[in-house]
Amino acid sequence: MSPQHTPTGGTVGEVGEFGLIRAVTEGRAQPPTTLLGPGDDAAVVAAADGRVVASTDVLVQGVHFRLDWSTPDLVGRKAVAVNLADIAAMGATPTAVLVGLACPSDTGADVIKDLTDGMWAEASRAGAGVVGGDVVRADQLVVSVTALGELGGRPPVTRSGARPGDIVAVHGRLGWAAAGLAVLGRGFRSPVSVVKAQRAPEPEYAAGPAAAKAGATAMIDVSDGLLADLGHIAESSEVGIDLQTERIEVHQRLVEVGKALGADPMTWVLTGGEDHALAATFPSFADLPDGWVRIGSVTMPDSGVTVDGAAYEGGTGWQHWR
Length: 322
Fold this sequence. Notes:
By secondary structure, the protein is α+β, with helices and mostly antiparallel strands. The protein contains ten helices and 13 strands. The longest helix has 18 residues.
């Protein structure tokens, strides 16, 4: 970032729209897939095989994040991560993100600078570029990110390809963000490991394409809860899915937090969202890629999602407007 355009105080209203755009875009490195980055009417991003995978998520202050619980840079990382995880869940490699940002005019310019620093950092971690977007005035802070990716010549891995006899596997942590939310909700800021998981997930983006190459038949980003999201695969594929809890690791740190809060950590693992792990189904003969762990199997058609052969008692995950 060019020093002359770095906010050092004041509000976005004082810096102005174009001053703010310069502050958050100048001096940034772009990956080779960015053919034309910020500064024109639209960006140009390479699509090697002629197809683009696209996804959009909106994060609203007070609903998806709180600045008294997190920091602007971590909110920025989270906003990008939740979108790029969707790209990975299609078996695609992230290439670019576009950002829509709305905020009150009295928002500190340094808040937005830190927010976008986090976005650039997470996009860079995934090998993607921040290629454009828009900034507008609003009554509260809202971040909308559109993520793009490319399939490398492979077919997309959708939610509708699971078949009876497939195995169910996950890649990434489960229950950590939910535990962090429970900790923050009690007014605590530690253990840091679970609080950090809630503030900013760390998806392994390469796990999606690796699963696609290994023959994954269906895949999804675990954003709303393992049971809820596997339910989407079961419904789209018209199959049943049974999870075996003996195969699902509950990390000792979650056990400790659960004991301290009087909560069952397996509930966080099964129903907690925002970790953005990946869940997928594979043919029974497939060799699972590194980091993927079998947790269940695909069963008879239209039998829903069960846990150890029985219906799960309780909520299965996050639902909007509830």
